[in-house]
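Standup, Tuesday
Yesterday: got the pipeline producing structure tokens again.
Today: sanity-check two examples.
Blockers: none.

Example 1:
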Amino acid sequence: MKSKLMILGVAAGFLFLLSGCSYEQSDTTMANTTTAQIGNQTNVSINSKSQQENYKSLNATHTMMVDGQTLKFKTNYGIEKRLTNNWYFTVPSTIELGINPLTNIKGLSYQVNALYADVSILSKYTKYNGVRQDSFSTNYGQLKNGGIDVDNNHGYNMPFQVEGINENETSVTVINGYGGSDTERITEKDLRENAYGGRLRVAWTLLVTDQNSGKQYSQTIQDSIGLPYKHLTED
């Protein structure tokens, strides 16, 4: 009987420790992570423009030479304002990815052929550095023109739904086991103490089509964007 009570006591203490570790707070709320809530309202109007106002964006201009022509493209990356300088690895979030041409040359058309993006940890410690939080990849090579058409007035935009690192078993395994098989949950506090922040890497594959000759040229644009942390301080 005593041994059973001891086992129960140890189990209860273990559960208490687990539950204590799970109460670490983030700034995730119902209001800032959803566009509407199911409740008494039967009809809800969602304004996509007002949704975009909740994002903070960064733009980059890229110049390339194609068949003697100078072409410019603008890439756009947006994250939720609540995550500006305060990126979270352990909760889901959304990153807006966008591109559009700035140069309009008669006879040339542009297509987005493929897009790859990932978010990983930046750290001075090998255990954490380069560990991938989530990745996204899409390819439009099967389409008639080899991609999605874009022009000055119609850019390409895609939301990257980034998983929290605890939803990604590979990331948890690599961090905890350092290549092993341990899958203990990761805490945001642990990451913030050991990481500079996150890094968004994006690779765009573009096709430039000469409508007169039918020739197509492939170009790649790459960006690496920092996602800083608000580092925790000791009480």
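Example 2:
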Amino acid sequence: MYTYRRAARARAPRAKAVTATLALVLAAATLSTGCGTDSGSEPAKSSESIKSGTSGKPGDLPKPLELILDTPRLERALPDRFSVPADVAQPRNRKAWDSYDPTICQSEEWQAKWCAQALSFGIAAFTNMQDQELSVRLISFTTPEKAAGLFVGEGTEDEVGKNPPGDQIDGFEISPGQGWEGRGVNVRQGSVIASIKYTWKQGTAIPSDRLMSVTRMTVERIQQALRGEASVASARPQS
């Protein structure tokens, strides 16, 4: 019995020492990691959220950067015969150029000042071989700011309607003569400016929203190209 009591008393101080040591270790870990009972403390951001520039919150994704529309991308953004209205879908021309030769740019009806700063430009033209003609011209710049410095749309509601497409927009009249009439729209979306012209023989029945429908389709195709997507927007009714 004596031996048992002595052994018990010898083990007790050691157990207390181990318990005290564990308490100190846990306290040090709490201080070093910042984990405690303070519910107002922010969790540390992950390295991935720091790289992407987000706050680390769920759903907070960085805004994707827009592409620059070089000549191949610009050409793909141009409308094709499957995206324009069916009654004016006979193709006449669809082509894009680099801006190395400003004389070509100016021959496509762009201002000399624009041609001097352009990256690429192109045209898609269509007809029904009878009484309607449509052309869509695009010109691309390296930044939206450069495009915005060259074109400021001042379209009024009676010209372009409520909530018109694009960042800047302006409408204008066309007087081709010889029994033809028409209307046009200039519109900027990001770093790209489009000039859309629709002409028809006098007396031809044209839907009242035809020009704006083509304009919205053109802007959507530019937006898709700037995001790196396939340009598939169409002005035809979707089934």
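Quick observation on example 2: Confidence is low (pLDDT under 50) at residues 1-56. Residues 116 and 197 are 23 Å apart (CA to CA).
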